[in-house]
Structures are given as structure tokens and as C-alpha cells.
Write a structure and sequence with these properties.
The chain is an alpha/beta fold. It is built from 14 helices and nine strands. Residues 15-168 form the 6-phosphogluconate dehydrogenase NADP-binding domain.
């Protein structure tokens, strides 16, 4: 296959569009700016872009306007409905992207929607990649995200020098594969978080010092990245969001929607417990806050 945009590997020529400058997106696009790329951003509230403007970013008034002056447009937004509107809507990215352009959705979204976007992009002689990420706001700030890419391998290869400014890119397969990889990641992460919360609450109820308990188990079979990232925050009751609880509820819900999946009992239980956070008004807290649900179930205020 002849690659349509070899200039994508050249920061001096590639024009980047970016939509979504929230808790992670701002840090991610900052790395792209630092690498020397020309960047235009769109946000519903452009006041949020002031810091990025001081770093050299320009602004656009709509996704379509953004796409008209971009070679590659990234989206990093809240959910699949946002993705559909911003990319496929009448004033969306694909309405303005020129033939040969690429749209890269880094939102945790639905595999079926990624395939739909890919098909529509190809119909317009454009390209689409689904590339959701894992690593939270710390991974975004420190440019060490895990990036799961689905689409055409040649296009992902062209984009890799650019996306490597945000983390490690792994090509997973055809359109939708990146999103499927992220859902699998969330199933594991959700189960690990629930297990960590239950182990910690058990240790507390048994009269153990949670600091000593974490130190004792972190290097054994129970040790994990989840424990390293969230263990201390859990026992300190620090529920600052690195990833919103309501988002993991969304992600685990998408796992149940996949037609190929018939039984995910662990994911269903995890979703129920994180949904307890949302029902308690804590959906905007961090995912480590699931320990508060386990504490309540065990009579700990």
C-alpha cells in the first residue's frame, strides 16, 4: 500500500488538530507542542486553552474548522456520544478533513463506533485510527502512557513517531482493536482495584497497619501497578481523580455490550461496585475511591 502522507513523520510539516483538553488531554497535547509540531486546539470553552496558547497552540471555533487546517486530528474526550458528534456530526472532523488526512480517537470508546468511523473515513479518502490509552493523568504528564492502536498498520507506523511523544504505541490490529484492547485493560484494572480495596479493608478490620500491610505484600504475588499507583491513596482516603469513577463504569459497561462476550462475572461485579460510587455522588472522584464502597459495606465510616 502506498502511504498517503509521508510528511506525517516530519514535525516541521505536519499540522496537528486536537480536541479534548481535560485532565489528560492538556498534558498529552503539551508533549506534541514541545516536540515541535504545529497544533490547533478546539474546546467548547476556549478559556481552557490559554495555557496551551502560551506554548504556541492556535485555536479553532469548530471541529470542522479545526480539521480543515490539519493533517491529523486527535480526539481525547469523555464518551462514545461525544466521539460520534465530534467526528461524524455535520460540523465534525470528517466534514472538514481533506483526503489523505487522519483522525485518531484516543477516547475510551466502543469498538463498533471505531469501525464505523474507519469506514466513513475511508469513504472520504481519509484514514482513521482508534488509539485509547492507559496510565491516567500521571502517565499523561510523564509521557509514559500505554497507547493501544487499531487501524491500518502502515498509518499507525507513520503516526508512531508523533504518538511516541505521549507514550509507548502498540499496534493491536484492524479498526476497533485498540478499543477492544482498552476494554480488556479496564476489566483487569477494575478487578485489581476491587481486590486491592478488599485486601486493604480486611487488613484494617484485622487490626493491621495498612502502611505495613502494603509494604509487606507489594513485592509478593499480590503486587501490581494498581497497588503502586493507588495503594497509598486508598489508605490515605485520597480520592483525587486520575481517572473518573464514572468512566470505568462506562468502560466496564462496554465490555458487557460486546457480542462475542457471553460471561464476564468479575467485570459485572466490578461495575456494580464502581456504580455504587456513582450512585453515592462520587462519580467524579478517582477510581481508587472504590475502597470507600468496600468500607461502607464493612461498617467503616
Amino acid at each position: 500500500m502506498e502511504t498517503p502522507y509521508p510528511k506525517l513523520i516530519d514535525p516541521s510539516k505536519t499540522r496537528i488538530g486536537w480536541i479534548g483538553i481535560g485532565i489528560m488531554g492538556s498534558a498529552m497535547v503539551s508533549h506534541i507542542l514541545t516536540a515541535g509540531y504545529s497544533v490547533t486546539v478546539y474546546a467548547r470553552d476556549l478559556r481552557k486553552s490559554k495555557d496551551l496558547q502560551t506554548k504556541g497552540a492556535r485555536t479553532a471555533n469548530s471541529p470542522k474548522e479545526l480539521a480543515e487546517t490539519s493533517d491529523v486530528v486527535f480526539t481525547m474526550v469523555g464518551n462514545a456520544n461525544d466521539v460520534r458528534s465530534l467526528i461524524l456530526g455535520p460540523d465534525g472532523v470528517l466534514s472538514g478533513l481533506k483526503p489523505g488526512g487522519v483522525t485518531v480517537d484516543m477516547t475510551s470508546s466502543k469498538p463498533a463506533l471505531a469501525r464505523e468511523i474507519y469506514a466513513e473515513a475511508r469513504r472520504r479518502d481519509c484514514w482513521a485510527v482508534d488509539a485509547p490509552v492507559s496510565g491516567g493523568d500521571a502517565g499523561a504528564r510523564e509521557a509514559r502512557l500505554a497507547i493501544f492502536a487499531g487501524g491500518d498498520s502502515e498509518i499507525v507506523e507513520l503516526l508512531t513517531p508523533m504518538m511516541s511523544n505521549m507514550g509507548i504505541v502498540r499496534f493491536m490490529g484492524a479498526a476497533g482493536s485498540g478499543q477492544s484492547c482498552k476494554i480488556g485493560n479496564q476489566i483487569c484494572a477494575g478487578g485489581n482495584l476491587v481486590g486491592l480495596a478488599e485486601g486493604m479493608v480486611f487488613a484494617e478490620k484485622a487490626g493491621l497497619d495498612p502502611v505495613k500491610w502494603l509494604e509487606a505484600v507489594k513485592d509478593g504475588a499480590a503486587g501490581s501497578a494498581v497497588m503502586r499507583l493507588f495503594g497509598e491513596m486508598m489508605f490515605k482516603r485520597d480520592y483525587k481523580a486520575t481517572g473518573f469513577a464514572e468512566y470505568i463504569v462506562k468502560d466496564l459497561g462496554m465490555a458487557a455490550e460486546e457480542e462475542a462476550v457471553t460471561a464476564m462475572p468479575g467485570a459485572a461485579l466490578s461495575k456494580q461496585l464502581f456504580s455504587g460510587m456513582v450512585a453515592n455522588g462520587d462519580g467524579k472522584l478517582g477510581i481508587q475511591g472504590v475502597v470507600s464502597v468496600i468500607r461502607r459495606l464493612n461498617g467503616i465510616s
